[in-house]
Amino acid sequence: MSLPVQLPLSVQLRDDATFASFYSGGNEALVNLLDMDRADMDCEQFIYLYGPHGAGCSHLLQAACHQVDRQKGRSIYLPMKELVYHSPKLLEGIERLQLVCLDDIGEVAGNALWEEALFNLFNRLRDSHTRFLVAANNAPRALGIHLPDLVSRLGWGLVFQVYPLAGDDKVAALKLRARHRGFDLSDDVARFIIHRGARDMGSLFSLLHKLDSASLRAKRKLTIPFVKEVMRW
After folding, report:
1. Residue 63's closest CA among 126, 17, 5?
2. For residue 48, what is the enclosing H or E element?
3. Contact at 8 Å (CB) between 212 and 222?
4. 147 touches 112 (CB < 8 A)
5. What are 177-202's pLDDT values in tens digits?
6. pTM for the predicted model, two decimal places
7. How confident is the model at residue 1 (pLDDT cuts 50, 70, 90)?
8. CA pair distance 186, 221, nearest whole angstrom
9. What pLDDT shows up at residue 2?
10. 140 phi/psi in degrees, rounded to 5
11. pLDDT, tens digit, for every residue of 24-36?
12. Rounded to an integer, what distance in angstroms lies between the CA atom of residue 1 and that of residue 73?
C-alpha cells in the first residue's frame, strides 16, 4: 500500500526490482537480512547500505518495499535525487509506515534544511519502531554531511557495503534477470553482451531489456548475430 500523502514527484517501484531477481554474489548476507521471507530473526530496525552506481542498492530498497506491499503493509521509497528539490515537510507522517527507504541520501550533503529534517526523521522512526533502510554511494562519514548528529544517526544500525558483480557473477546475474523476463539467455550471449556493453549492471540490465523487446518484435531468439544486428556492433 502506498503512503496516503500526495507527493509532488512521480516515484514508482520498478516491477522487476524484487529479491528473487537480484543475484546476490558477494552480498548474500545482506540480502538474507533484508529479505524477511529468508530472515530467521527479528529484522534490524536501521540498515545503511552503500556501493557504486549499478551495485544494486536501489534495487534492494525497492525489493524491500515490494515485499512489505505484498504483505498488505505500508512502505515508501524516496529517491533523494528528486526529493531534495522539494520541501522537507514531505517527510512528515511517514514514521507511521512499516518501512521507509531513502535512496541516494548523500544528495542532501550541505543542505542544512534537509540535514536537520532527516535528523528529526531518524528520531521519529526510532520512537515509532519503523524499519528504515538508507542507501548511498559512500559510507556515512564519507558523504560530506555537515550535521554531526545526522552522521551519527546514519551509523545507528548495521552498515553494509554492497559489492558490484564481476566476471562469472555478471553472467549469472544477466541469466537470472532473463529468466524473470521469461526467456533463457545462453552463457555465450551473456558474455558477449557484457564484453561489448557497459560495465555496470544497471546499464547491462537496460540493454537486456532493449534486446528482449527487439527479440519479441522480430520473433527471433536472442543470439549473438541478432544482438550484433540490433546494437550495430
Report:
1. 17
2. strand 46-50
3. yes
4. yes
5. 999 999 999 999 999 999 998 878 98
6. 0.89
7. very low
8. 11
9. 44
10. -50, -45
11. 999 999 999 999 7
12. 6
Q: Residue 219's CB: how many other CB atoms inside 10 A?
A: 6
Q: Measuring CA to CA, which residue among 98, 101, 97, 156 is closest to residue 133?
A: 101
Cell of 98: 512499516
Residue 12: pLDDT band with limits 50, 70, 90:
confident
| Most distant CA atoms of the chain, gap in Å | 58
- Which grid cell sits at 134? 538508507
Q: Which three cell numbers stand for residue 69?
A: 506491499
Mean pLDDT of the chain: 91
**Alpha-carbon distance 206 to 224, whole Å?**
17
Show the cell assigned to 215: 527479440
Q: Which residues contact 213 (CB under 8 A, 6 or more apart)?
A: none
Q: Residue 54: phi, psi to the nearest 5?
A: 90, -5
Half-sphere exposure of 59 (CA within 13 A, CB side): 24
Considering only CA atoms, which of 206, 222, 224 is closest in space to residue 214? 222
Q: Are 163 and 31 in contact (CB under 8 A)?
A: no
Collapsing DSSP to helix, strand or coil, 178 comes out as helix
The single residue listed with the C-alpha cell 534492494 is 60
